[in-house]
Amino acid sequence: MHWSTGGPWSTAPLTATGTANRWHAYIPAQTHATVTYWISAKDDAGRHAFSPADAPTTVHTFTVATRETLLAEGFEGAATGWTHGGTKDEWQISTPLGLTEDPAAAYVGSQFAGTDITGLGTALGRYENSSDTWFESPAVDCSLSTGVRLTFARKLAVERSNGGAWDYARVQVNGTTIWESSSSANTLDAAWTLQEFDLSSIADGQKSVKVRWTLHGDGSVNYGGWNIDQVRITGLTSAPAALAVGPNGGRGGLVLHASVPNPAFSRALLRFELPRSARAELTVFDVRGRRVRTLVQGTLTPGPHEFTWDGRDGEGHAQPAGVYFYRLTTPEQSATRRLTLLR
Predict the structure, then answer these.
(1) Angle (CA) 163 166 172, round 5°
(2) Sheet of 278-286, strands arranged across
(3) Which end of the chain is more exposed for a tag (fewer CB within 10 A), N or C?
(4) Which 8-state DSSP code applies to residue 79?
(5) How does pLDDT run across 234-276, given as a tens digit for each residue?
(6) How many CB atoms lie under 10 A from the CB of residue 338?
(7) What's the rounded Cα separation, in Å, for the pair 139 and 322?
């Protein structure tokens, strides 16, 4: 077997597994890498075979990466950055009253987002006639991610669309519809169901990704509408395991490691290494660039260091769930990484 992570090819012999006609070889463990490999074989008569057949012009490829949470929302708190609107908008984040086709309880916790879950307007517990409403996530930074996925729990009740002339529900990502309710039959979920969508063709490498749930009602017949909970957007990070940037953009000896764990539920361990004694500052920022907390500011010895962020600002206030950045700076270098805080 011949393999590479972008540099020269390395080789490893295949050995018998003990099962007839099965052989194996091992590639050393990787953290963040795209691995390419091909296999060659030769029999006693000197005949060769390759996999793929035209290797090494064509090779096998796989990616080793960490799936990180880019957005996590269970609607138990303020749901910062979420918006809604439209004609006869009745989207709510609340504890339900169990009206009509609405769920009697959240999928997780006590609250969720949905259309009229406490009894609004004229069609109590149902979306209104002649309505066009939407509910949208905050912008999610997927610029360092591949294989982006969306998951959420759904309990949906909507009349069939009849080719778009009646009622319909849609899920859209940056204006592109990735799912639409049936044209031929009413969609009436009996219970919460988990939904998963591959967003890689739309979201991979994008700086701003927004998910929108929409609902259209015609002039008659209405149902309970959208109910959503536990929204997650995840992606495979393409960032290296550690990062250091010098004043001229070059790599250096300063190393900033990924936080542990990521996502963090209450506290995150931030680790780094200094090549020499230096004055260093480790600071946590929110997505707007606001300084949340400085964890260390002073002269440190060479070698590894670690500090814990407990999810609070400098005044001891707990910070909301979301994406944060932590930056390590010295007079010569700086490095920044991202972490996700869950509540």
Answers:
(1) 70
(2) 291-300, 278-286, 322-329, 334-341
(3) C
(4) -
(5) 988 654 444 444 444 344 578 888 787 777 777 888 989 898 8
(6) 19
(7) 11
